Amino acid sequence: MDADRFDETTLDDAESRFQAALLANDVAALDGFLHDDVRFTGPDGSTIDKAEDMAAHRAGALVLATVAELKREVQVIDGVGITRALLHLVGTAGDDKIDLTLAYTRTWVPSPAGWVVAAAHGSPAPPAHN
């Protein structure tokens, strides 16, 4: 593994670019950030794979007007990247308006294209964080 290419600085940059792609609903960029075998666990406990996630983005099922980061932690442990971000999200999910704060944990792994997300989990943030 190229330690200079897969360090906390490049992981921090990948997280920033990932959040920007979410805000822009940039389907091509999001696709490039996701490992083919990625799994997402949502706030309701359901799990989806990459195909389901990409289909939802293509259909515009989640449209974000705001992705405001309130806090971020970045770690690289034995070549595996971990980001934890507290995000305030405003937009629409289907026909419903959303205005909520979620705590996300993403597990990133090195790939020839750079860091990619292998697993992610979003949970409602405790009221003390809002």
Q: Which secondary-structure class do the elements indicate? A: alpha+beta
**β content, as a range?**
over 45%
Instruction: Give start-end ranges of low-pLDDT stretches.
Output: none
Number of domains: 1
Identify the CATH class. Answer: Alpha Beta
> How many distinct helices?
3
Shape: globular
Could you walk me through the main structural features you see in this protein, from its secondary elements to its overall organization?
- The chain contains three helices and six strands, in the order ααββαββββ.
- It is an alpha+beta fold and 130 residues long.
- It has a single domain, classed as Nuclear Transport Factor 2, Chain: A (Roll), CATH 3.10.450.50.
- A six-stranded mixed sheet has the order 2-1-6-5-4-3.
- β1 and β2 form a beta hairpin.
- It is globular, with a radius of gyration of 14 Å.
- The protein starts with 7 loop residues before the first helix and ends in a 6-residue tail after the last strand.
- The relative contact order is 0.21.
- The mean pLDDT is 93.
Produce a short descriptive summary.
With 130 residues, this protein is of the alpha+beta class. The protein has helices at residues 8-24, 27-33, 50-59; strands spanning 34-41, 47-49, 62-77, 80-93, 96-111, 114-124.
Keywords:
alpha+beta; 6-stranded mixed β-sheet; globular; 130 residues
What is the strand and helix layout of this fold?
Layout: H1 8-24, H2 27-33, E1 34-41, E2 47-49, H3 50-59, E3 62-77, E4 80-93, E5 96-111, E6 114-124
Parallel strand pairs: 1-6
Antiparallel strand pairs: 1-2, 3-4, 4-5, 5-6
Helix pairs in contact: 1-2
